[in-house]
Task: structure prediction
Amino acid sequence: MTALAALIRRDIRIALRVGGGALIGVLFFLTVTVLMPFALGPDLALLTRLGPSILWLGALLASLLTLDRLFTSDHEDGSLDLIVMGRMPLELACAAKALAHWLAAGLPLILATPVLGLMLNLDATATSAVALTLLVGTPALTFIGMIGAALAVTLHRGGLLLAVLVLPLSIPVLIFGVAASQAAISGPLPFGTPFSILCAISLVSFVIGPFAAAASLRHGLD
Amino acid sequence: MTLIDLANPTKFLSLTGRILPWLAGATAILLMIGFYQAAMAPDDYQQGATVKIMFIHVPNAWLSMFVWGVMSLAALGTLVWRHPLADVAAKAAAPIGAAFTFLALVTGSLWGRPMWGTYWQWDARLTSVLILFLMYLGLIALWRAVDDPSRAARAAAILTLVGALNLPIIKFSVDWWNTLHQPASVLRMGGSTLDRAFLIPLLVMAVGFSLLFVTLHLAAMRNEILRRRVRSLQIMQASQQAA
Amino acid sequence: MRLTGRQIDCVRGGRAVFSGLDFEAASSHALAVIGPNGSGKTSLLRLIAGLLVPAGGSVALEGGADELTLPEQAHYLGHRDALKPALSVLENLSFWRDFLGGDASDPHECLAKVGLAHATHLPAAYLSAGQRRRLSIGRLLAVRRPVWLLDEPTSALDAAGQDLFAGLMQGHLARGGIIVAATHAPLGIEAGELRMGGSA
Result:
């Protein structure tokens, strides 16, 4: 257990210190959301209607873009070799890294949601619905994106290719995340239906993500 | 390297060399019969002659999914059984699968034009195929991003399997999303409601296109094996000159 | 304890690096792997560490802990130092101590042994190349592992550092450890030799 805690603690520390990427994700989220009214016009009614979609899209892009370095930085400085050799199962180590990444980069997105919701003229119900769906959905994005991050080690390149590979896989999360938010705001569907499917997708990704990432890392080292 | 790489593939090359002409011939004959029957099939009382696009659209749509299945099997071959031909099969299948998927998209869109009055409608079936097409393109990009074929093969195998696990989820969510936004689907095509006059040409076309895939796939695998031989010869040459 | 490799073939990127390699290292013995660039010294170490899969042959550790694999009983000191510049010297070492687990010792003592006692709270980014190397050597001391796999361990070290490291290696051998080191320079300890790439 100490090994697990040590890994999570280390990754969070690095992400929050100078040069870490955690806050850049929030900044990106903020900027994308602020750009939207410029593209759509400052019509508050329209922004209210599109608000949940805008927030979800921003969070999706922000959480995937910061994932780029999840494994490559450890690969470049040789840490990944030692993590692979360690006594902790690699799948568990991958899950720990993803969890640390979500705590450092995903959670701040959710904390920023109320402020952005205010700017998009969302009321309290709508904002809390979006925040709740993001709370359940963004871990799924991290764990799915982790597969792409592990492939980036094999490829010696991440960035755009990673996004191209991972974005199609995250479509279900987007669909049910937005649908649940909309259901809470305007109905007619009960909030529970899409929300519980979103939870299910998250749980599935917790299983697939670490195993696929670990397999990719094991096969991809040289 | 070369012994393991070449021993099995050599047998494969000579075997496929003999089979391929027959396969190609059978494919051509079946497709000709299929096209003839399709041309002779009666027009639909609602859709008119446009219904004949179905004879090309449906086999392509079926193959777009089938090829991903073939690649998933090959991916298991790469990761689990470490079969030397598995990654060749996976790599050769990807562009062919992408081509079939693209044809399914184009024919679907052409078919939709008279129905919907627009080339593109966010119809559940078309949208799923579009996402599948994007995934094919991503996979091909992945293959092209790595120089060393065995490394690329393992990365692509993992992505293929993850894709295979995700495809049903994606299909389900797109269907769900679609019913949420537009309750009535325009294209409705249950196999059982199809008239025999349509069903038989459709089956012939499906078998014909499947044979076309097998033919193209084997030919592409031969090319890939030869390409790898050239590559290892070049590497051998480089290391000889260095020594 | 005995570390043996039998008929190992190594293939990288379609190129045969070496083939049919045999080696053996017993408890309290060091093995120096020597050979020109590209002869596969690093590949051999990474093979033993389980980071590369051999195309043929096998590596085994006899007499170690049964429930652990060879990589789990080995330290690997590669070209790269596995340090995070954003973390302090102590945080770097403590992390590896906690993560690697097993029979651990006090990180402050380890840092003192490698001559970094004065720098424990500085960010690792401020260290020189030699100091970074000393810090990674501290990792070998922080957690006990019977097998040390060292890739050019002394490359960035000054004379004093090399003497210090030779002493640490002596201590490891005296406790019954095994060392396999790829090196161009003399290790400063008594070691058997494994020549790579010279036969062709």
Notes: Residues 1-6, 183-192 of chain B have pLDDT under 50 and may be disordered. The first helix of chain B runs from residue 2 to 40. The interface with chain A takes residues 79, 131, 134-135, 137-139, 141-142, 145-146, 151, 154-155, 158-159, 161-163, 165-166, 169-170, 172-174, 176-177, 180 of chain B (CB under 8 Å).
